[in-house]
Design a protein that fits this description.
Oligomer: single chain
Largest sheet: 6 strands, mixed
Mean pLDDT: 76
Low-confidence stretches: 96-103
Strand content: 25-35%
Distance between the termini: 31 Å
Number of strands: 6
Strand order of the largest sheet: 1-2-3-4-5-6
Order of helices and strands: HEEEEHEE
Amino acid sequence: MTNQQIINNFLSAFSRGDKTPKHKALSVIGEKLYSYNLLIAEYVVEEGFSGVLIHDHWAKGLGVISSTTSQHVGLIIRATKHHPRKLRSQQGAFDFLTDTVRK
């Protein structure tokens, strides 16, 4: 599976809950998307919001873990352009994702 296929699997309501091969750097387990063993996106229903919560592991967010993980976060941000989504950029807090371009 390619990274894009894994992300499409994560975003598909029909395949949600399916697992992807764990030997890949990007994987889906249940309703969560992982880069290696780090949670980078998940489906949430809380405080009137239902959608994808993206954990911002970019330099200006939660911090870069690896360049590959940063690329995976970029992939999920681009793939959810037309989905309800929020970005967690600080520990314990999340804000509406309005600008996906980092400087």
